[in-house]
Amino acid sequence: MPIVTIQVTREGSGPGRDSVTAEEKAKLIAGVSQLLLDVLNKPLDATFVVIEEVELENWGWGGLPVPEKRRRLAAGGN
């Protein structure tokens, strides 16, 4: 019984969006489940997929909180 956890930032995937849509989550669940069936022969009814939306401020990248890292990159830094 595989359990797969997908973590995404709670910022959505486009301007003005603050979350991943239910349709996008359904596609992620279907795609990951199908991948496990194709690669590991795990039946769909035995596969569990958990999607966790994490506040952007709770992510780090390159030793910095993501918002700060993005500010620096936008300003031409690291």
Automatic annotation (TrEMBL):
Assigned EC number: 5.3.2.-
Class of enzymatic activity (EC top level): isomerase
Keyword Isomerase: yes
Alphabetized GO MF terms: isomerase activity
Disordered, as annotated region: 1-20
Superkingdom of origin organism: Bacteria
InterPro entries: 4-OT, 4-OT-like_dom, Tautomerase/MIF_sf
Domain 4-oxalocrotonate tautomerase-like: 2-66
Keywords, sorted A to Z: Isomerase
Biased composition (Polar residues): 1-10
Keyword Isomerase: yes
Pfam family, one: Tautomerase
UniProt record similarity statement: Belongs to the 4-oxalocrotonate tautomerase family.
Name of the molecule in the record: Tautomerase
